[in-house]
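Session log. Operator J.P. requested a structure for one protein chain; no other inputs attached. Running the standard single-chain path with token output.
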Amino acid sequence: MNGKDAGRMRAFMGTLDRTERLILLLFYADQLSQAEISLVLDLPESRVSTMLGTLKRQASEAMKHPA
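Structure written below.
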């Protein structure tokens, strides 16, 4: 990831609430499954799945635009 991409990702992460950031970090950095994330955050697995899909789309869109 180059400097521009890192800046865009940092800016995107800054727009998220705590739960949204945790879902992305647990999924990508800690490589937890959606089922594991649902247990850690005490959320229904369906909610984690929905949020993760939305966050992936938002992150993809954010990476297309300048920070």
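Operator note: Helices lie at 3-14, 18-29, 34-41, 45-64.
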